[in-house]
Amino acid sequence: MKRLHRFFQTPEAIAGALILALLVAIALAAPLLFPGDPQAIAGPALLPPLQNWSLPLGTDRLGRDVLAELFHGARTSLAVGLAAAAAALLVGAVVGTLAGFAGGLIDEVLMRITDAFQTVPSFLLALAFVSIVGPSLGVVIAAIALGAWTGPARVARAEVLSIRERDYVAGARVIGMHPLEIAFREVLPNALPPVLALSSVIVAAAILTEAALSFLGLGDPNRVTWGGMIAEGRTVLRTAPLLSIVPGIALVLTVLGVYLAGEGVVESTAVRRSLS
Amino acid sequence: MTVLAVSNLSKRYRRGGKPFAAVDDVSFEIGPAETLAVAGPSGSGKSTIARLVLRLLEPDAGRIQFEGADLLILSGAALRARRARLQMVFQDPLAAFNPRSTVARALDDPLRIHGIASRSERPRRIAALLERVGLDAGLAARAIHEISGGQRQRVAIARAIATRPSLIVLDEAVSALDVSVRGQILDLLLDLQRQERIAYLFISHDLGVIRALAHRIVLLEAGRVAESGDARTVIASPQSAVGKALVAATPRLNRIKTP
Fold it and tell me: Is A207 on the interface with B (CB under 8 A)?
């Protein structure tokens, strides 16, 4: 309760939380408000917004309901963003913990692999991965995570390096605990807070990467995505600019919301630390 | 029959590129139910010896015989199994436990790892351990950071005796406690030694505490043994310079009760 109260102290955190709550509501309501296929033709093509009240945001080039696409696109963006970030944090935390805790050769090998991944631009990596394996939701998530796990790995390793010298790690060795159990049960949970602080940035970047992949036609073709909508609208940018602008605004708001809420969380935990 | 026999133990570190000996050619023995104190000023190698004996650090030279077998040739699962007999209590009881741990989990770990009690039996064993060190069994559900420093050190002792060890290394185990708690913990340690015949390797810089607990003493200076012998004799009339300096720095000596 106290923590929640502290979270809502800053206007940024409140704004971020409101945007995120709205997005989650939209994503959850999408199949209820717009049952059926959002990619089905719903009316005449290129109907401008606010003309027909059953299609408030009009239709796109193929006559699909833009509002329905927007709602269903929120599902994809959030799902991909959260899943990719979770995968990246999990892989990064595990790799960083192993490298930092084991030290020596294992550390060297794991960190050189991390370097290799970091020297390649993450978007290029995702692009190459999706074009080789083929676009589907799972592949897109994996492709984004592939470029995002290095940050958490480095932070986790740095934290583990300081934690492994603590007495309670020596104590765990003294009672005969297996090194892997020490690494993942004693060390990793205590190294997590600074790693989790990266999550908002990673979620925001993942949502943008997914949109960019979809824009380039490498998203899952069976799902509506905001990036795909922008790409669709691009061909009629002069006559119907709103087809690109509306999903663009949704994208900006989402990333902003995730980022602000993440800042709020970091801020509230920082206050807690300085008080104690 | 000795519990622990350390001979010619050496450990060198590099400080500023130059090697220096933290522990230099140190030998000692501890018998069953005996307390050997290792004393000396800061940086004399006391804690390094504790960590070497526990295989938390690897020595550069020397032998460590524990219960008649070479401890230094063990590794992996064999070493972990051996650790049941060789335990440690740390100086700072707060740092010695995982900050996310509860009392029950801290005591459950050694019982589980060494297969001492089945899952269903462990809560009862944990309660018995807590009562053995003079704590209420209801404390088990509390988080480690919720109990007092003295209670925490009792939990640390309970964890150390959970696997029925023959030797416990006490690395400044009472130094961080306030004076009233310190006496109670020392009483508990003496009682455990009488009942369970546990030997102690007692690392300390406090000669008053050593005189109350230890049978024999090894005085270290710069990693080397400066003086050793019966604890009360050495403290009463130290021969080495470091012994005289330590005795001079202990003003409360005549007020400590002897066992």
Answer: no
